[in-house]
Design a protein that fits this description.
CATH topology of the largest domain: Rossmann fold
Number of domains: 2
Number of strands: 9
Structural class: alpha/beta
Shape: globular
Strand order of the largest sheet: 1-3-2-4-5-8-9
Low-confidence stretches: none
CATH superfamily of the largest domain: Alpha/Beta hydrolase fold, catalytic domain
Number of helices: 11
Length: about 260
């Protein structure tokens, strides 16, 4: 699948790819990508399938997303990259690194474990509440956002999800994300990463201090799968650590890219 993407930095600089998480899009990573580009990288930030401006498909699993990334790299002749992925994007990045280790020089995983996740039911609730919103009733984005307060109580999550709202035409609003495909494939999204061998290159795991997506009990498995791993905790951050603590996040990322 051809992916929509944004790029930052000068052509010919060492390439880096950033993969957003579930419900996200490339726009969420603009500030981080620009900062990394200033450190001497050409940064590519695609929208993954069924997200943002990329195409929609009934198929949504890590095999497909890995194939999408491979196609994306091949089309731009990017042979070796630094790869950063958050949440679902982190699992895509891990799976790609196991499947095509020769294409990844350094791997950064943001707040997701390679193990199966228990967060699926929460996301089912979120999706169902958003699908139930009849967008035809609203004549402005502001009205939809106001209504969302009744169904999504977390203001940070609500603001994050609202970025998926767009005008399909002059009279009708829609969601950029393919909620039906995501809803039907949540079991795939939350399953574990599969690996026949370890990935023996520099790897950085970043986890939010207030997040439970990378629990301590998963650390031995992470260290087994990634022998050169470094695990850092971002203080004062939950699952959206790059948005909540961008300075800490960038400090760890940039140091790892230069010295990891």
């Amino acid at each position: 699948m051809e992916l929509y993407y944004r790029t930052y930095g000068e052509s010919g600089q060492p390439p880096m790819v950033i993969l957003h998480g579930l419900f996200g899009m490339s726009d969420n990573w603009a500030t981080i990508a620009k900062s990394i580009a200033e450190e001497g990288f050409e940064v590519f930030v695609p929208d993954q399938r069924n997200h943002g401006r990329s195409g929609h498909s009934n198929i949504h699993n890590y095999e497909a997303m890995v194939d999408d990334l491979l196609e994306f790299l091949d089309a731009r002749e990017l042979e070796k990259i630094a790869l950063l992925g958050h949440s679902m994007g982190g699992k895509t990045a891990m799976q790609f690194s196991f499947d095509y280790p020769e294409r990844v020089q350094k791997l950064i995983v943001a707040d997701i474990s390679p193990s199966a996740s228990t967060h699926g039911s929460t996301h089912v609730t979120i999706i169902d509440r958003l699908i139930d919103i009849d967008l035809s009733r609203f004549s402005s984005r502001r009205d939809v956002m106001e209504h969302m307060k009744e169904v999504i109580s977390n203001p940070r999550l609500r603001q994050f999800l609202q970025k998926n709202l767009y005008w399909k035409d002059r009279a009708s609003l829609g969601w950029r994300i393919n909620f039906d495909a995501i809803r039907n494939n949540l079991e795939e999204i939350f399953r574990p990463v599969e690996a026949d061998e370890d990935f023996d290159k520099p790897v950085l795991f970043l986890r939010g201090e207030a997040s439970d997506y990378v629990p301590d009990e998963d650390v031995p498995r992470i260290e087994e799968m990634f022998p050169q791993v470094k695990i850092k905790t971002i203080s004062g951050a939950s699952h959206w650590l790059h948005a909540e603590q961008p300075e800490q996040f960038l400090r760890e990322v940039n140091y790892f890219l230069k010295h990891g």
